[in-house]
Design a protein that fits this description.
Layout (H helix, E strand, L loop, with lengths): L12 H19 L8 H13 L1 H11 L4 E2 H4 L8 E2 L1 H18 L5 H4 L2 H18 L4 H25 L4 H27 L5 H4 L10 H19 L6 H19 L4 H18 L4 H27 L9 H6 L8 H19 L10 H4 L27 H32 L3 H20 L9 H20 E2 L2 E2 L5
Helix pairs in contact: 2-3, 2-5, 3-9, 5-8, 7-8, 7-18, 8-20, 9-11, 9-12, 11-12, 11-13, 11-19, 13-19, 16-18, 18-19, 18-20, 19-20
Length: 486
């Protein structure tokens, strides 16, 4: 007798149906030359991972940041742009973070009420207010939402990641390891042309970093912690050797990035390291900065005269390249930066309270350019970057309070960092905290000359290192040490 045919569908029949449906739809779309739907299973997998292992997803995201590329590289002429795959992931993490915050309320009260977190609340609240009053609401909304997901992931979620002490080191190494891949890629592109040309450096890291300034800034950011890792004697020799290799690649990368601002920011950050090691009190540092500022205003005209006598342009020679950063006579890059700064100040003077709206500088600054301040690289199209300053950009876009709240975050972070490294019994965390402060200061100084915090590339280390200092301060104080040495 013939066996009866079992017509009962399998228990997981819906899984097979969805797979067949996906194959059919994806096949049709590939035939139509639309390939992005192919990444849907990966995106779904990442969403599932977010529910069950947020910490691993965040570390994966940090690794992907240096390797992310703009959507415009894949599909030109789109009205919007974003970094793939990181920004869609960040959007999803922001959504999950809000759900978690509403239902779980799992953020420790020490994080929620920390001075740095409170400063961030004021910073975001004012940005929201200036988004409502923006001259270009859609541009400002996108800018504000992107800022939200950067801070949600790289600050608030990162503080939870740092409850485990080993994750401090992982966060830094994951980004630095991926950045090393970019260094190798950029160096190979240099070698392809047989010489290390300063002009090649401008696009050698593209599409991962759109220009040599953002590339150099991130290299400078990670050199201090890698120095700390390499010379921390409690780490195993094998681990220190691995850290030393990454450090060598980062140094090679920054030399051949020909980014003058990155090199100068490293020098300035070294000065901060000296001040902290000498245990100089914070009020003394603030007083010194205030005096230097006053002296600058008193001798500003004579100083500018001296700078105009500098004719050294950007060069492949390291010392000449650093010297050229003060050339405001013939160096087109420096002159254009002054042009952008002057435009930002004029925009601020016209709208000093609410500004023009977050993210709108590039669309409004052109009419504020004076003919005698323009350079050979000036443009009226809003396609050549922004205000080239993390301090003047918010001043023009969000008014006086926009810059003030940002500066308060920097001040509170510095105070927190110095207190954290002096109040933790862990030698490793003292090293990590000091390295994080110095790394942040490379960007605080770099932010005078450029601004990249509207990108994932800079936001991941900036807010992540800030989270490191806050987490050490909250979770690892002497009176209540949490976690173990790893």
């Amino acid at each position: 007798m013939l066996n009866k045919v079992n017509l009962t569908p399998p228990k997981n029949w819906w899984v097979y149906a969805l797979v067949i449906l996906f194959i059919a739809i994806n096949g049709l779309l590939i035939y139509k030359e639309f390939f992005l739907f192919s990444i849907f299973p990966i995106a779904l997998l990442l969403v599932v991972a977010a529910f069950f292992s947020m910490d691993k997803l965040l570390l994966l995201l940090v690794f992907l940041v240096p390797l992310s590329i703009p959507l415009s590289e894949l599909i030109p002429d789109l009205p919007i742009d974003m970094f793939l795959p990181t920004e869609p992931l960040l959007a999803g993490m922001l959504f999950l973070f809000l759900i978690k915050l509403f239902f779980d309320k799992s953020l420790p009260i020490g994080i929620v009420k920390h001075p740095v977190a409170i400063a961030i609340y004021f910073y975001l609240t004012w940005m929201f207010i200036t988004t409502i009053s923006s001259t270009m609401p859609l541009v400002s909304i996108k800018f504000f939402v992107a800022k939200l997901w950067f801070i949600a992931a790289f600050f608030f979620l990162a503080t939870q990641l740092f409850k485990e002490q080993k994750n401090f080191r992982r966060y830094i190494i994951f980004y630095a390891a991926a950045l090393t891949i970019v260094v190798i890629y950029a160096t190979i592109r240099h070698l392809k042309y047989g010489i290390f040309d300063e002009k090649i450096a401008h696009w050698s890291a593209n599409p991962f970093y759109k220009d040599h300034t953002s590339y150099g800034a991130m290299l400078a950011f990670f050199i201090p912690p890698l120095i700390g890792f390499t010379f921390f004697k409690s780490y195993a020799p094998r681990a220190r050797f691995f850290f030393a290799i990454i450090l060598v690649f980062l140094i090679i990368g920054i030399i051949f990035s020909y980014s003058r601002a990155a090199l100068v920011s490293l020098i300035g950050a070294f000065g901060i390291w000296v001040l902290i090691k000498l245990r100089i009190k914070f009020w003394v540092i603030v007083t010194g900065i205030t005096l230097v500022t006053l002296v600058f205003f008193l001798i500003g005209n004579s100083l500018l005269y001296e700078l105009k006598s500098n004719k050294q342009d950007a060069s492949t020679d390291l010392l000449e390249n650093v010297k050229s950063i003060s050339n405001v006579s013939t160096d087109a890059s420096n002159l254009e930066r002054l042009n952008r700064w002057n435009c930002a100040i004029k925009m601020f003077l016209e709208k000093p309270i609410l500004g023009w709206g977050p993210g709108t500088y590039m669309f409004h600054y052109a009419p504020f350019q004076l003919s005698y301040e323009k350079t050979i690289i000036s443009t009226n199209e809003g396609d050549m970057g922004n205000a080239h300053s993390e301090y003047l950009g918010p001043l023009s876009e969000q008014g006086f309070l926009g810059t003030l709240f940002f500066l308060i975050i920097l001040i509170f972070t510095t105070i927190t960092g110095v207190r954290a490294i002096r109040n933790t019994p862990s030698k490793e965390l003292q090293m990590l905290g000091l390295a994080s402060i110095v790394g942040l200061y490379t960007y605080y100084f770099h932010g005078i000359l450029n601004n990249f915090l509207d990108t994932d590339k800079a936001s991941a280390p900036f807010w992540g290192f800030t989270a490191i200092l806050v987490a050490i301060d909250v979770f690892y104080r002497k009176e209540k040490t949490v976690g173990k040495e790893s």
